[in-house]
Design brief:
GO biological process, one term: sodium ion transport
Number of domains: 2
Organism: Photobacterium sanctipauli
Keywords: Membrane, Symport, Transmembrane, Transmembrane helix, Transport
Order of helices and strands: HHHHHHHHHHHHHHHHHHH
CATH superfamily of the largest domain: MFS general substrate transporter like domains
Transmembrane segments: 36-57, 85-106, 112-133, 153-173, 185-206, 236-258, 270-289, 301-324, 336-357, 378-401, 413-432
Oligomer: single chain
Protein name: Melibiose:sodium transporter MelB
Length: 455
């Protein structure tokens, strides 16, 4: 393992690992941005039903995700512990993405059962690919500086993919469907599926791990060790709770974006333009991340990332009822806030999860990348499901009717439910600054302990 402490990460590994993030997050954002809208406005299923399905799926994930993380931790193969799951998970997830956007081909009870089954399977297969993907990070390098040079690559590709999926999706659905939105969404799902599998192949072939995983570790790792890896690591728990509040806020806004732009701002294409500006700024911020973090520090950047979604929500609130030109400016500004926040939050969060893996190793003598990353994935999915459920209930409560002009009361309600959850970002900010300690000297001490342990 000493190689991972000193060896520079080569450019080929950075690029191949980065491209793995592109296909993985393209598919994820197709689901996050379009699936709820597809179900309500194309398939014609009630928002309350879809929200309930999302919630039930995540309740199942509280069992499934840690279990998958444990299985991954016990895996032994000639390709290592993680790469087989990255490939298999992406292939299975690709199938479920296409299936999700095929619900319009069914009717009645069969359609509802199909929606529930495919969404649960999608969540299971996403964990199967996501947790092992990020678990590669500590096996590529344990050096803090090298990690900060490696992580912008997958986050750069993932950010580009997310904004490409969101921005281009509005147009591609129309082009691919030729007037049939159901067909358009399904073909868009096929594109996402192909990208996911292709990116997984690239990562598995060309990403180099700089130390060999100890096969004996899989034999000695057990349920008790898994529990200790999670609950004895207070720094990881602080990250998890903070991430939950941030993700609930951002996912709630994300789940309502198409509704907000379509009905409150009166132009769904304005959403694509907002995403474009967000993508440009998000990608640009990742390109300059390493010199930026060296200049102002990781903590300052993360604090900015936690506050920006609130500023974006307030900006869009005031975009309603203004002139078309000013509306375009405010929507673009909100997109920039979202793009910068998302890019910085996910990049730094995933670096910090790797740091908590090291912390657990140094403090508790338990090292389990797959367990911690699977729990992190679970938290992200649970926040998405919770917000999906709340979006469904909220749309029903404000008397939203798909594909019709909304009443003034419904539009006012839509503005309120879009902005209010954003204030949860303030709670995330408070938790991070009061409870998370792995910055500066504290993190340096962990790194020094590991160098002594593995030298």
């Amino acid at each position: 393992m000493s190689n991972a402490l000193t060896k520079k990460v080569d450019l080929g590994t950075k690029i191949s690992f980065g491209l793995g993030g592109f296909g993985k997050d393209f598919g994820l954002n197709v689901i996050n941005v379009f699936l709820f809208f597809y179900y309500t406005d194309v398939v014609g299923v009630s928002a309350a039903f879809i929200g309930t399905v999302f919630l039930i799926a995540r309740i199942w994930d509280t069992v499934n995700d840690p279990m998958l993380g444990f299985i991954v931790a016990k895996t032994k193969s000639k390709w290592g512990r993680y790469k087989p799951w990255i490939l298999i998970g992406n292939i299975l997830n690709a199938v479920t993405i296409v299936a999700l956007f095929s619900a319009h081909l069914f009717e009645g009870t069969a359609q509802l059962v199909f929606i529930a089954t495919t969404y649960i399977l999608w969540g299971m297969t996403y964990t199967m690919l996501d947790a092992p993907f990020w678990s590669l990070v500590p096996t590529i390098t344990l050096d803090k500086t090298e990690r900060e040079g490696l992580m912008p690559y997958p986050r750069l590709c993932a950010t580009a993919a997310s904004y490409l999926a969101g921005g281009a999706g509005v147009y591609l659905v129309k082009i691919l469907g030729g007037g049939d939105d159901g067909q358009g969404y399904m073909m868009f799902g096929v594109i996402a599926a192909v990208l996911a599998v292709a990116s997984a192949v690239i990562t598995c072939i060309w990403t180099k791990q700089n130390f060999e995983e100890d096969p004996k570790a899989a034999d000695t790792f057990n349920i008790a060790a898994a529990r200790r890896a999670i609950f004895k690591n207070e720094q990881f728990l602080a990250l998890v709770i903070m991430s939950l509040f941030y993700n609930v806020a951002v996912n709630f806004m994300g789940g309502l974006n198409l509704y907000y732009f379509t009905y409150v701002l009166g132009d769904a294409k304005l959403f694509a333009k907002s995403m474009l500006f967000g993508g440009i700024v998000g990608v640009g911020s990742l390109i300059v991340f390493k010199p930026l973090v060296m200049k102002v520090g990781r903590k300052a950047l993360f604090n900015v990332a936690l506050i920006l979604p609130l500023l974006a929500a307030i900006t869009l609130y005031f975009a309603a009822g203004v002139s078309a030109d000013l509306k375009m400016v405010l929507a673009s500004l909100a997109g920039i806030f979202h793009g910068l926040s998302s890019a910085m939050f996910w990049l730094i969060l995933l670096i910090m999860v790797a740091d908590t893996v090291d912390y657990g190793d140094a403090k508790n003598d338990v090292r389990s990348e797959s367990i911690l990353y699977s729990v992190n994935t679970l938290v992200c999915k649970c926040s998405g499901a919770l917000t999906g459920f709340l979006v469904g209930i909220s749309l029903t409560a404000i008397n939203y009717i798909p594909n019709q002009e909304q009443t003034a009361e419904t539009l006012t309600g839509l503005q309120f439910i879009y902005v209010a959850p954003a204030f949860l970002c303030l709670i995330a900010y408070f938790i991070y600054n009061r409870k998370y300690k792995l910055n500066g000297t504290e993190l340096d001490n962990v790194q020094e302990n590991l160098k002594l342990k593995y030298s």
